[in-house]
Design a protein that fits this description.
This protein is an all-alpha fold.
Amino acid sequence: MSALLDRLARYLWPLALANLVANIGIVVTGAAVRLTGSGLGCPTWPRCSDESYVTHGELGVHGVIEFGNRTLTFLLAAIAVLCFLAALGARHRRATRLSFAIGLGIPLQAVIGGITVLTDLNPWIVAGHFLLSMAIISICIALLDELRSPDRGAAPPLPRTLAWATAAAGWVVLYLGTVVTGAGPHAGDTDAPRNGLDPASVSQVHASAVYVLVALTVALLVVALRGGHRWLATVTGMVLLIEVLQGVLGWVQYWLDLPVGLVALHMLGAALLAAGLARIALAVLPHHAVHEARADSGSQPDAATRLP
């Protein structure tokens, strides 16, 4: 077992990347389930139907799409387990804890997904399902930051406060996005309930929150540039770009009456935004690669766990 862990330790970085990519990917495939009206393609849970754990001909293409998305959970779980074992092999305490948290999120996400099916796609439960994915993506970013990011000290109070305010505003935007979705037409099934709110009104509230988020991000970028915080400025600039693209995409999809292709891209953008918000929040915290101690207090010999 020790030899296996030692071998896996060499792949900690690519496995950490795979964790992030897989969790963003399942957000997009989940969007495909909803946008194709396949949310109840498997009408029950944990079985696909009362007669079978897998899809069958009577469930049609919607059953195939929904069951396919459920099956991807096993791929996410496998990647998470391998990443956890690699972190154990590297004797990297913080990476081990973070990869363990990611692994715990996968079955929890599956259970919440099952509850969404059992409640006929209740939009508030669906929102929780989506937001948990955003939280798992954030932990994936924390793992990547732990393994490879520039050495830095703690940021001064002003950029630190702005960074955390930006991250908080971003999460408000993500939540309000789920409220807009719950009021809109893409319910995942023709008989699925809606939250009863006026789509135009909640879209305006969502847009107002986006304006606040962009203003905070611009302020953070200016402060980071003036203070010479290069890593924070780089991360913030990338997040600002994501926000602008998301904003443009959001308005275009609204005026074009929510075409499914643009909605799917908007979901991908939301996942990237969650990743970026986590990057901003972490960029104001201290990080010293040489202090990434192993569990046995030895130094990290493998350059794959830190920047050269």
